[in-house]
Each structure stands twice: as structure tokens, then as C-alpha cells.
């Protein structure tokens, strides 16, 4: 409270507030662990976070003697997640929702598919995916890429991944596990969302425990590749993981035909919004499109760029709520303009325009304290097709005759 006499000092601000775009990309992974009867350390409702994969914490968690995935019977989903992220050299937060399975429950399970599709296991996986919605409240981190390898090819699990991704403004990487090109394209027809990347086929990896090669879901590796791409610079989320080499694999569960410049299976899958794997200078991801009905939002970098900008505005402008309009409106507009100016300077957006909406900012809305700001922008496009037209022409024939006559 100011004093009644003498000199009083008041501080005020007339400047744009910095709005910071989130640059890190936490991965949310749901999988199973098998606990021996005498182990009860991990509680079912726990969500655990690991700040990096390189120190082996997640690998140790997934493979430790006390919490060994699937008792070594089938290879573990969390083990595969750890290996996939580690192979891509990703250092990011990994939010893990581990589903406990009693060791005795596997005594009568003969093959892996019986376990993955077991109704009880599936229900708990779905509950675990839904539980990722609370990760920010519990851990302070919100996953941006969601995976549930070995389970996501199931339609019900995939549906929950998409629903959770919608809630979190995240991207779900979903395996199709198709037996053929036609099967993958047919399965892709079940999706119509900007919140999912469909992955097919499985990739070939080496199992160091069994000393044999096996096929593992590609969703974890493609998600890790996106996280790696994000981490290459401050605005890596504006880049695509497509046409980047996938580390740690030696093949695919079925050969994907790829011939540059002609119609082929890889391009047909990509046209159907299926992210696949091609062999061209190593094994590379091919395609990063969503299945949204609106073609504008089939471009994953565009979706994620707008997500990051919107989230930055939600956090960066929160200070303006419940303050006087005379103290905030100009600063709000300036702050948004400075945010987009920084993105333009980094070639994340091509251009932008920020204006107060003349139609929505009616006298009634102003009286009610409601104000509407429009920000129009275009992101930097991702090159997906190049065409070079080579045309034969004889207009340089005179040069040849000049050379034949001894000229230069």
C-alpha cells in the first residue's frame, strides 16, 4: 500500500513478454513387465520418468532380474522401447506407464500373440494409455509422442492412443502389423486423424539375449527418430523424420519395393499415409503424413509446428488473464508478433500477420472482458516431390560444327 505522504514509486511494464516455444519432446510409452510373486515394489498406478536413455536407466528397468519383461518368453515391449530409443541416440524424457503382470499368469501362455491379445492384458494397456493424460500433474512432463509397441496394432488400443493424443496435443505412432501392402492400405482406411502416424512393416533387429534376429514393431523406432529430429536444433519439431536413416535395424518383416521415380509399393503406402521403411542408403523412414480428412493437416511438421505455437501462446499469455485491458492488450499483440518474428527469422514460418478481430471484438464482448486476436501464418513447406524435366534439344549443334572446323 502506498504511503499517504512523501514520495511513492510505482513500477510498470510496457513491453512484449517473451513467449518460449517448447523444444524438447518427451516420449510416452506403455508396456508390460512381469513381477515374480515376491516382488511388489512397483505400483500399478505409477508413471515413471527417465530423463535420458544413454545412462541405461530405462534399459535396466526393463531388463532387471526383478522386473524382467515377459520372463524372457517373448521379448518385452519395454525392452524394445529402450533399445529402439537407445539405437537412435535420443536423449529426451521418457514417460513410462508399466503394466504389472503376475508371473504365474504366463504359465499357460503358449505364444506371444495369445498374450498381446489377452482381454485382461489389453484392458490394462488401454487403461495405461489413458493414464498418460495425468503425466503432467504427476511428473511435470507431458509426452508429445505416444507408443505402445506390440499392442498398438489392435484397433481398440489404437483408438485409445489416438484419443489420448488428442487430449495431449501429441502424436501417436501406431503399428499396423500388416501381412501385405493391400492389408496395410486397408487398415489405414480405419483412421482419419491428424494425431496418428501409421507404421508398417515391422523391422528386423538382433536380440542379444536369444542371439537370434527377430521382427519388432517399427513404431518405437520411428517415434524415437522423430524425437531425434526434434533435438537437432531449437525448432526441430518443424522438420520431418521421413527420409532419415533408422539405426539398429537390418531389414524388415517383408520387403518393401522402392524404385525412385516410378510407381512402387513404398510410394503407394506413403500416398495412403502409411510411414514405411525403404532400403536406400541404409534403411530409411519413408513418409510422415497423418490420415486427417483435411489435406492441410496431413502434413505432420505443420501439425506439430502449430501445436507448439499454440501451446507456447497458452503458457506465454496466461499472465494477461484477470488484468486490466489497458495494461495487457498491446503487450499481448506485441508478444505474439515477437514470437512469430523469431520463427520467421529461423525459417520455421514464411510470413505472418497479427490483427485484432474487428467482427468478434464487439462492444458486448469488450464489456464482458472477451478479446479476440487473429494470427495468420504459413509454415515453411516440407519438400515431398521434385520433378526435373530433361528435354533433348538440337540448338547446340552449331557448337559441334564450329569445333569440327577448328573453332573454340
Total strand segments = 13
| Multimeric state | single chain
What would CATH call the class of the largest domain? Alpha Beta
Helix content: 25-40%
The span between the termini is: 91 Å
**Uncertain ranges:** 39-43, 64-75
CATH topology of the largest domain: Rossmann fold
Question: Which CATH-level-2 architecture of the largest domain?
Answer: 3-Layer(aba) Sandwich
Q: Please give the largest β-sheet.
A: 8 strands, mixed
Count of domains: 2
Strand content: 15-25%
Q: Summarize model confidence as the mean pLDDT.
A: 86
Q: What integer value in Å does the Rg equal?
A: 26 Å
Number of helix segments? 13
Silhouette: flat
Order of helices and strands: EEHHEHHHEHEHEEEHEHEEHHEHEH
Which sequence of strands runs across the widest sheet? Answer: 2-3-1-4-5-6-10-11
Q: What does this protein look like?
A:
This protein has 408 residues and is an alpha/beta fold. It folds into two domains: 27-302, Rossmann fold; 323-408, no CATH class. The chain contains 13 helices and 13 strands. The chain has helices spanning 57-63, 77-87, 112-116, 119-131, 135-139, 155-168, 181-188, 219-230, 265-271, 300-316, 325-345, 363-367, 397-404, and strands at residues 27-35, 47-50, 94-102, 145-147, 171-175, 196-199, 203-207, 212-216, 251-252, 274-279, 283-286, 349-356, 373-379. The strands form three sheets. Strands 2-3-1-4-5-6-10-11 form an eight-stranded mixed sheet, sandwiched between helices. Strands 8-7-9 form a three-stranded antiparallel sheet, with no helix packed on it. Strands 12-13 form a two-stranded antiparallel ribbon. Helix 6 (155-168) links the parallel strand 4 (145-147) and strand 5 (171-175). The longest helix has 21 residues, at 325-345. Mean pLDDT is 86; it is low at 39-43 and 64-75.
